[in-house]
Amino acid sequence: MPEAESSHQRPPVKWLPDDGRLFLEGEVVKGFGRGSKELGCPTANFPEPVVEKLPESLDKGIYFGLSQVPSILPDVLPMVMSVGLNPYYQNERLSAETHILHNFQGRDFYGEQLKVLVLGYIRPEWNFSSLDRLIDAINEDIASAKQAISTIDIQKFKQNFS
After folding, report:
1. Looking at the chain, which terminus has fewer C-beta neighbours within 10 angstroms, N or C?
2. Three-state DSSP state, 161
3. Is 26 helix (H, G, I), strand (E, B) or coil?
4. How many C-beta atoms lie closer than 10 Å to residue 30's C-beta?
5. How far, in whole angstroms, is CA 31 from its chain's centroid?
6. What is the DSSP letter of 157?
7. How confident is the model over 17-31, as a mean pLDDT?
8. Does 112 participate in catalysis according to the annotation?
9. CA 74 to chain CA centroid, nearest Å
10. Distance CA 93, CA 59 (A)
11. DSSP label at 138?
């Protein structure tokens, strides 16, 4: 697994082809409890049965797209999602953790339905030599997602969430 140190260049964002987009839906479950506390980046985690259905061809890494938690807010919102093993934490199980780019005032979504449309790929999964480097990379991932999503009309994807 490559280290995300200064010697690694961040690849350009890649949009997925229309037929390569991925739609996920499932109940939000408790994750490892690190997102908000350690990383300052709250995540909504999909349960194992949803993660197990991900295509084997899907690369581990950081993705961007759109999301919705219809019982909380009907709006379709930008998101960043990590799909992988989180090597900094040495996880042994694949996870799909979604950070919705909206301030929900600390509200959690446990037990709520989360819908995600994956539109593009930001970078591969990297390991980090420190928590600070991981947090910096997360912030860069969020900036990349915001920039990419700012170039599209979110409304044209709303039908994917009906």
Report:
1. C
2. helix
3. strand
4. 10
5. 13
6. G
7. 93
8. no
9. 19
10. 15
11. H
Q: Exposed, middle or buried: residue 63 (CB in 10 Å: 0-12, 13-18, 19+)?
A: buried
Taking CA atoms, 25 is separated from 3, 44, 62, 72, in Å, by 31, 12, 18, 15
Q: What value does the mean pLDDT of the chain take?
A: 89
Choose, from 3, 56, 97, 140, the residue flagged as catalytic: 97
pTM: 0.90
Distances (CA, A) of 161 to 30, 74, 95, 141, 154: 23, 10, 22, 24, 11
* 21 pLDDT more than 60: yes
pLDDT in the model for residue 150: 96
DSSP secondary structure string for all residues of 45-99: E--HHHHHTS-TTSPSEEEEEEEEETTTEEEEEEEEEEEE--GGGT-SS-EEEEE
Per-residue pLDDT of 63-122, as tens digits, reads: 999 999 999 999 999 999 999 988 777 777 899 999 999 999 888 889 999 999 999 999
d(CA 88, CA 53): 24
Q: 133-161 burial string, b = 16+ CB within 10 Å, else e?
A: bbeebbeebbebbeebbeeeeeeeeeeeb
